[in-house]
Specification:
Distance between the termini: 114 Å
Strand content: under 5%
Number of strands: 0
Helix content: 55-70%
Shape: elongated
Order of helices and strands: HHHHHHH
């Protein structure tokens, strides 16, 4: 009788300890933070961490170009809090490149948006052989140049690159030349 009682107690202890171990494993899953889904959750002042947060927000939401542009703007804003010349490269290596590999966002959009913030060149200027092809798009081209200039102001500030005014003036010179050709002005 003693042996049966000891055996039953031992069996109960084994089962109880086994169940306790399973409970702890399920609690570990519950303790992990939920995925980041909102732009406001991109809150780190460290550019590398902010890039990881931004990727998580991108991956947690269905693709939407407007949302992606807002996420990118938030990322640049966070980098301005730790402005440094290497921030453009950090964003390229820790945000742009990984996103290009996932296919979640069109690679051309990611690259063009990065260039809109950090490149001296204006991606909103059309690259066509004939200026006449752009004559009916002059209003949109000018709006896009002005929008890109505002983005460059933010990006240049995040990277301590100075002021993009000279690049803007060059882009406007090209635009004015296009306008003159389209309006047949000598």
């Amino acid at each position: 009788m003693k042996k049966i009682t000891i055996l039953i107690v031992a069996l109960i202890c084994i089962l109880a300890s086994g169940c306790a171990g399973i409970k702890k494993l399920t609690n570990r899953g519950a303790d992990s933070p939920p995925p980041l889904t909102m732009i406001s959750q991109i809150d780190s002042f460290k550019p590398e961490v902010a890039c990881r947060q931004a990727i998580e927000v991108v991956n947690s939401n269905p693709y939407n170009q407007e949302l992606f542009e807002k996420i990118f703007a938030k990322l640049v804003e966070q980098c301005k809090n730790s402005a440094a010349p290497e921030n453009a490269d950090i964003i390229w290596n820790n945000f742009v490149s990984p996103l290009n590999h996932t296919g979640k966002v069109p690679p051309d959009l990611v690259k063009n948006l990065w260039n809109s913030y950090f490149s001296a060149q204006f991606v909103s200027l059309p690259s066509v052989d004939s200026i006449e092809q752009c004559c009916n798009k002059l209003v949109d081209i000018k709006k896009n140049i002005e929008k890109e200039y505002r983005l460059k102001q933010e990006g240049f500030a995040a990277c301590q690159q100075g002021n993009p005014d000279a690049h803007f003036l060059n882009a406007m010179y090209v635009y004015n030349t296009m306008w003159a050709v389209c309006h047949e002005v000598d």
